[in-house]
Amino acid sequence: MGFLENYCTFCALTEEKLSECQEFDCEHSDLNAFFKEDSINYSKEFLGKTYCFTLDSNPSEIVCAFTVANDSIKVNFLPNGRKKKVTKLIPREKEFRSYPAVLIGRLGVNKAHKKKGIGKELLDFIKAWFIENNNKTGCRYIVVDSYNETTPINFYKSNQFEFLFSTEDQEKEYTGIKNASLLRTRLMFFDLIVLSPL
Predict the structure, then answer these.
(1) pTM score above 0.85
(2) Which of 31, 68, 84, 102 is deepest in the core (most CB within 10 A)?
(3) What would the pLDDT profile of 119-174 be if each residue is shown by its tens digit?
(4) Nearest residue to 50 via CA among 60, 62, 61
(5) C-alpha distances in angstroms, 7 versus 53, 57, 136, 165, 179?
(6) Do 75 and 85 form a contact (C-beta atoms < 8 A)?
(7) Ordered alpha helix ranges (H), the chain
């Protein structure tokens, strides 16, 4: 059993919860600003839902938070080699043009709890959440638009996420980003079927 399960409480990050909690700092200005200023509006506009784990011994302390939204992987827009990689475990793959996915829009761990394996526990929780029987929707993949920085890319790779496009140039071409532009993020995916008990 992990730290989140044994010492934390899971809940939606609502306006009321935010007002009760200490400021959440995951040492990334963009993420901090999102959780503090934008997460509630995303929820109100049905663009994403934010959740958090708070510390049982101090319920005003957010240990980690994440935002999820509906998404899909549109395989018709992928190069053939990448399409085969995404659909290799899918029967009747020619019948579908897109596959249901959930997007992790934001994910952060409180700086006071970094280097304790919380990020891995949180990803394991999210993966399990979308394959459990109580899940109300079909979801084959988890996708993330990871910051194109060494630490987050390595974090997702270590948690079995793969790049949706094999190179940055390929991703630029297929997503319509001008070639001279630096990619701020990289699309990555995880196939939930590998966790299926069947």
Answers:
(1) yes
(2) 102
(3) 999 999 999 999 988 777 889 999 999 999 999 999 999 999 999 999 999 999 88
(4) 62
(5) 9, 8, 27, 38, 47
(6) no
(7) 3-7, 15-20, 29-33, 39-44, 80-87, 118-129, 150-158, 168-175
